[in-house]
Design brief:
About 25% of the residues lie in helices and about 20% in strands. With about 180 residues, the chain is α/β, with parallel strands linked by helices. Helix 1 crosses helix 3. The radius of gyration is 15 Å and the shape is globular.
């Protein structure tokens, strides 16, 4: 299905529907430097320039988007979000809830320029920008975010030397402790 891009406005989408098994508790509620990971992610998307911010996997929230099939991973949640957004935005900037070291300046290159091309960082498929005009692959062919982006025209941006640490996912209590030491 092809959608026309009617507006340049970008929606931010926090991917927060995971089970957080390795963390042992809901990662969205984990505190990082005095703030919940979910709040940090939402603020990062706003500061990057997103017109509106939604939370995938949290249909109970006023800005929530339901996952059609739970436990299918972030790529399926991204497809669900693009379908939910329809043509109200030029595209969606996806940010996992568990990347608190990223800054808004890490996100801005993903949404600058052409709104008809996907963008992600080399070796870091998330965060990622997907235009609503993208012709999405069949759901049953998508196994991961990498496979989703491989099926779409994607510009892969290069992370500068020494900056890759900010792209770390915080999946375990030990990774949380290590990330706090990086600040």
């Amino acid at each position: 299905m092809t959608r026309a891009t009617k507006t340049r406005a970008i929606a931010g989408v926090v991917l927060a529907g995971g089970q957080s098994r390795r963390m042992g508790r809901d990662k969205a509620d984990v505190m990082f430097e005095g703030r919940k990971l979910l709040d940090l992610a939402e603020d990062n998307l706003r500061q990057a320039g997103c017109a509106s911010v939604y939370v995938s996997g949290r249909p109970e929230r006023t800005n929530g988007i339901a996952d059609k099939d739970t436990d299918q991973g972030p790529a399926h949640a991204m497809i669900d979000a693009i379908e939910f957004l329809g043509d109200r935005y030029g595209g969606a900037l996806f940010l996992p809830v568990d990347m608190p070291l990223l800054q808004s300046f890490d996100l801005q290159p993903l949404i600058s320029g052409d709104t008809n091309t996907c963008r992600a960082w080399v070796r870091h498929p998330l965060p990622a920008f997907i235009p609503v005009s993208a012709v999405l692959p069949a759901r049953d062919t998508v196994r991961s975010v990498k496979s989703l982006l491989a099926a779409l025209p994607t510009d892969w941006l290069v992370v500068e030397d020494g900056e890759a640490d900010r792209f770390a996912n915080i999946n375990t209590p030990a990774e949380l402790t290590a990330a706090l030491k990086m600040r």
